[in-house]
Amino acid sequence: MAQKRVLILGCTGSIGTQTIETTDHLNALHAAGRWPHSYTIVGLVAGRNTELLARQAQQCKVTNLGLGHAAGKADLVGQLGSQAARCTIRTGPDAAEQLVREVEADIVVAAMVGAAGIPATLAAAALGRQIALANKETLVAAGELIVPVCRRTGATLLPVDSEHSAVWQCLAGSHTTEGAVAGAAPLNAGPEVQRVILTASGGALRHLSRTDAYNATPEMALKHPTWSMGAKVTIDSASLTNKAFEIIEAHWLFGLEPERIGVLIHPQSIVHSLVEYADGSAIAQLSPPDMRLPIQVALCWPHRGDGVARRMDWAALRTLEFSLPEPGRFAALDAADTVMRRAGTSGATFNAASEVATEAFLAKRIPFGRMGEVVMRAMSELGHSPVRDLADVLAADAEARRWTAGAIQ
What we know:
This protein is of the alpha/beta class and 409 residues long. The protein contains 16 helices and eleven strands. Residues 175-182 have low confidence and may be disordered.
C-alpha cells in the first residue's frame, strides 16, 4: 500500500501533535525515496482546543473534523476561515465515533484522554482497523470488550505507550504459543515468557517522604523530571496510577497473568520495559524518552524507517538505576491487581474514580494522597459486575463518577 490513511482521535494533545510531526517526517522520507509509504491524515478529532484544531486542519488539509465540545463549533468555523465551507464538522460526545464509522482510514490513532475514547476505539476494532493505541482507559475499562472484538475482526492494536511498545518490540525476538509475536497485539505471550517488567520514572514526587508526598500540591506533582505530558497523565505518573493502568493494559495486550507482570522504578526513563524468559535471559528496549519513537514504530509496523526521534548517546550514558516501588505507598498498584483478578466492571470503576479524584486534586480540593484513598474506597463500595456490552461499561463509569464526586464533596 503506497498510501496510508490516518485518523487521529485526540489530535491536539501531546500524542496527537507528535503523530502529525511523525507523519511529516515519514512523508519527507517518502518524497526522498527512502520510505515506501506516504501518510495522509483523513480526520482530526479534538476536545475543546478549536484554535489548534483549526491550524492542524489547515496545515494537513483535512476536511473531516470532530469536536467534543459542541458549543465550540462556531469558534472553530471562524478560525477555519474559508476552509470551513469544505469541512464536515461533527460535534458532541459521539463525534469521534462518528468519524471512525464514516471516514475510511487504515490507521486510527486513539489518543483521546479518559473514558471518552472508548466508544470510538471499540468502533475501530469492530471495523477491523489498525489501532495505534495511546488511550490507556480503553483497555483498563473495556478490555473484556475490545480484545474479543479485535480477535474476531482481525483488528490490530499497535501499542503507542512507550512501555507496551517496548514489550512488543522485545517479544518480536521470541516465540509464542498463540499468534505471531512479530505481528501486532492482542497476542498471548507463551510459557517461555516468565515475566514482563514495566519501568516507571517515579514521577515528580519520588524523592519526597510518604507524608510530604501525601500533602503535595498540583504544582509540585506536575513537574515531571523526564517526560512532557498532559496534566492528567503527569499526575498519574506521580501516583503510579499511570503504571497501574499499564499493568492492566499489558494483561490484555499480551495475555499476561498478574503474576507475570512486574514494575521497577527507573528514573532515567531509558529502559522502557524488559521481558524475562524461562531460561533466565532478559531482553530490554532502550531509547531516549521521546514519544515520537513508539508512535513511529506503530505507524511503520511491521517495518522500520529512519527515525524522527533522537538516538541514544551511548558514550554519555553513565548510570541506569532500578528499584522496587515502596510497599504500601502506591494504592493504584493494588487497584490494578484487583482489576485483573475481579475483571468485569472493576476496571471502569477504577478508571472513572481516578479521573474524578485527579480533577479534584488539580482543582486543589483534595491533597495528593487522598486520590488513592478515594479510588480504593470506590472500588470497595461499588464492587463489580459482568461486562456484556458497552452499556455495562458506561453505566459503571457513570456510577463511579457519581459516587466519587459525592465522597470527595
